[in-house]
Automatic annotation (TrEMBL):
GO biological process: proteolysis
Molecular-function GO term, any one: serine-type endopeptidase activity
Keyword vocabulary terms for this entry: Hydrolase, Membrane, Protease, Signal, Transmembrane, Transmembrane helix
Record-annotated Peptidase S9 prolyl oligopeptidase catalytic domain positions: 559-769
Coiled coil: none
Protein name listed in UniProt: Peptidase S9 prolyl oligopeptidase catalytic domain-containing protein
Entry keyword Plastid: no
Domain of life: Eukaryota
Pfam families: Peptidase_S9
Length: 771
């Protein structure tokens, strides 16, 4: 089931695949001869009126020549189009992805950010480059050369002229550390800056973090726990040369998300760095593996990263990191992450756990920029519950004390960023289906907070070092893909980037996303979204009734590269999306309410929400409705299929990687804590009835509605047999059905060509069976 972190990482992972050949297999086809609540409208934009490794310093070892004749930006392509057209998934995937803005570390007058572009117009490849922009003139410069298949990532602006970052531009095609040396006047730059490769390890570098003084850095490689980098590479080669592919397991995890656990671990390595006389940084020859001989990951898999889970202290002499307790099988049914610190001044110093008294999750350590002893982190209090409320704790190392900030809040803190003054915090919080930004003025004396951004979805805060309450960030909404914005101390907000303007000017989108509420289960207020069809509401419209996964997630006011409301509205569908009981961002009690109630409270909310939509949005045609869901949403599709009072309302159903047999799921999924917690903290063998009470497989005899089943072969969260079982049930009952099988995809569809095929197949099915 989807985790909250999936939401934050989803758009980035979608772009990670380089596409060569579509790989979609379609298998099997059989055919049979209340009171109105206040509503609000979302506006279209945000504005206010290991030992032994010797790295070699290399210079400009860029082996790939820029394929200039094959380069075209989305702006160039869409400017060449004469006519506008209704938005589709191909347009969606052609959008440039912008992320990780960082303001100039000295004067704050410019910023650098990532831009991922796709090969136009066929999407068969992508590249990620660094861009610079002046905040006053808006002059924009692409710093690194775009090369298809090459991706720059995880940069740190060291000083006004130096950037360190990761890239697979190395001649070996491995991801290594590069240095970019900037001229004093970037505004006059006419070409690209060729970066200098400063490492040449035999393994990919997956994460990078540089301390504030540029005296040390941390990076991660996937190594065997008791081997260094070169020894790991030698073992991998020996295994490849052996001609054997055999996995042997003595504990869980066997596999996780989309990867079999065969022994390789994310380990952080610490090295000292110094600048040579030529200005190029050099790494010390023997990186120290902080987790050597420990069978664990940091950053944690599958979605942890250095930005969130690692931190250097203000002096750079201490290092904090998050790790999971993977040493035995309990990792599969616990959520115990802990934070460790290590004193880098002592070569033999072992990491010290500062949170081991808490057997729930502790993660995302962040040292104060001004106080060597102060560290904040996010913490759960309920073991085994990954959707528990995150609170912010302050750890003082000099006194070994912990204080919880904002302890009376019922919202979960999703991210936190220090202000440069070391007293204030910027907080990202899910609040009523928006990811908003709060400012905590003083963590020492005054815990009052100010709401700075109250709509849409905001991420990637980077504060100005010269001015309080000034920062850059990314912002998106249902109506607007991600752009980079500047929030100024006086409350003004302005967009800084416009890479997608030409594309958006040539596509027709729905211009309205309406938030509505109604009385749901338990006579409690439940919220939902209505997006009208892009072609208007003057005539009756078919309905796409979307059910989110998680289930402790929400349909946020956010742009999507997979389940995008606009992709449905542009096909003439009205969209209704309910944030049922169990959704996050409405308080922890509302989120917790789904425990043991998978098929009850959310199901009631969906019924009542559909009633409300039909009563209040007259353009929706009750005779042409389709329900679609993924993960838990797919579970609910299978549950609805067995409840005739609800299934009879829909012409057809679409189930993507949905749960079908809860007892089987309890033994075959990798993260057992999901199933066990959500069943009421029971294992399958302790309380089988907890898994049977809302088990879709028990109601197959009631199934009658045509259904499209979609599965990914590498989905280890909801294994493919769940979808195959549902398809088998449909076929055995002689119900019109189809199985869409993606042999190379996981819980999501990440390959752009597959994503396009997904929408083609889904819309064809909806048109054929939803009318």
């Amino acid at each position: 089931m989807d985790r909250k972190i999936f939401f934050y990482a989803g758009f980035f992972l979608l772009g990670a695949a380089i596409v060569l050949i579509p790989c979609v297999v379609v298998i099997g086809l059989r055919s049979n001869c209340s009171d109105k609540s206040p509503q609000s409208t979302v506006t279209a934009s945000l504005a206010t009126t290991p030992a032994g490794t010797t790295p070699v310093t290399l210079t400009n070892t860029i082996a790939t020549i820029w394929n200039e004749s094959d380069y075209q930006s989305n702006s160039q392509y869409y400017q060449s189009l004469t006519n506008s057209h209704y938005f589709n998934q191909t347009d969606n995937l052609r959008l440039d992805r912008l992320s990780s803005p960082q303001l100039h570390p000295v004067d704050g007058r410019s910023l650098i950010y990532w831009r991922q572009q796709y090969h136009m117009p066929d999407l068969r490849g992508s590249t990620t480059t660094l861009h610079w922009q002046d905040l006053h003139s808006n002059k924009n410069v692409q710093l690194t050369r775009p090369i298809w298949g090459k991706h720059d990532q995880q940069f740190t602006w060291i000083d006004k002229n130096t950037i360190l970052f990761l890239s697979n531009r190395a001649s070996s095609d491995l991801t290594q550390i590069f240095q970019l040396t900037l001229p004093d006047d970037l505004s006059s730059l006419s070409g690209f800056i060729e970066p200098t490769q400063i490492t040449n390890y035999s393994l990919n570098i997956d994460n990078l973090l540089v301390n504030r003084n540029a005296t040390r850095l941390a990076f991660s490689c996937q190594v065997y726990a008791n081997l260094d980098i070169e020894q790991t590479n030698a073992r991998k080669q020996a295994e490849l040369d052996s001609g054997r592919t055999i996995y042997k397991f003595d504990k869980l995890y066997i596999r996780h998300w989309d990867e079999y656990y065969t022994g390789l671990r994310n380990h952080p390595f610490i090295v000292s760095i110094n600048r040579q006389t030529n200005g190029i940084f050099q790494l010390s020859p023997n990186p120290v593996d902080v987790l050597f001989n420990i069978d664990s990951d940091s950053p944690t898999k599958p979605f942890g990263d250095a930005k969130a889970q690692w931190s250097f202290s203000a002096s750079g002499d201490s290092f904090a990191f998050t790790r999971q307790h993977d040493e035995d099988s309990s990792v599969a049914w616990t959520t115990n992450l802990d934070i460790y610190t290590v004193d880098l001044r002592t070569a033999t110093q072992s990491p010290v756990c500062i949170t081991c008294e808490n057997i729930a999750t502790d993660t995302d350590p962040s040292y104060s920029p001004t106080d060597e002893n102060l560290l904040i982190y996010r913490s759960h209090s309920v073991p085994g519950y990954e959707s528990d409320q995150y609170k912010v704790k302050v750890y003082n190392g000099s006194m070994n004390t912990k204080v919880t900030l904002l302890d009376n809040w019922d919202r979960s803190i999703q991210a936190m960023t220090w202000s440069p003054n070391g007293q204030s915090l910027y907080l990202e919080i899910g609040e009523e289906a928006s990811n908003v930004i709060y400012y905590l003025e003083n963590i020492y004396t005054n815990h009052s907070v100010d709401l700075l951004i109250d709509n849409g979805t905001s991420h990637n805060i980077h504060p100005d070092a010269t001015q309080e309450r000034t920062f850059v960030f990314t912002y998106e909404s249902i109506l607007e893909p991600a752009n980079i914005y500047l929030y100024s101390w006086n409350g003004s907000i302005r967009a800084l980037t416009n890479h997608n303007t030409a594309l958006l000017s040539k596509v027709i989108l729905s211009k309205e996303a309406e938030k509505f509420s109604f009385m749901g289960a338990n006579n409690e207020t439940v919220w939902g979204w209505h997006v009208p069809p892009a072609n208007g509401t003057s005539q009756k419209s078919p309905l796409a009734f979307l059910i989110h996964g998680g289930p402790q997630s929400s349909w946020y006011d956010a742009w999507g590269y997979r389940w995008n409301f606009q992709s449905y509205s542009a096909q003439g569908y009205a969209v209704i999306a309910i944030n049922f009981h169990g959704s996050d961002s409405y308080g922890q009690n509302f989120t917790d309410s789904i425990t043991g109630e998978y098929g009850s409270l959310p199901y009631e909310d969906l019924k009542l929400g559909l009633d409300y939509a039909l009563a209040n949005f007259s353009h929706i045609d009750a005779n042409r409705m389709v329900a679609l869901g993924a993960s838990y949403g797919g579970y609910m599709i299978n549950w609805i299929a067995g409840q005739p009072e609800m299934s009879s309302r829909f012409k057809t159903l679409v189930c993507h990687n949905g749960l079908f047999d809860m007892r089987s799921m309890g033994y075959s999924t990798e993260e057992l804590f999901f199933s066990e917690h959500d069943a009421g903290n029971y294992t399958v063998y302790d309380n089988p009835s907890a898994y049977e009470v809302y088990n879709p497989v028990n109601y197959v005899a009631n199934w009658t509605v045509p259904m499209l089943i979609i599965v990914g072969a590498h989905d280890y969260r909801v294994p493919e047999t769940q979808g195959i079982g549902a398809f088998t049930a449909l076929q055995r009952r002689n119900i019109t059905s189809r199985l869409l099988y993606f042999p190379t995809e996981n819980h999501w569809v990440s390959n752009p060509q597959h994503s396009i095929a997904w929408f083609e197949e889904v819309f064809n099915w909806m048109r054929q069976h939803g009318s």
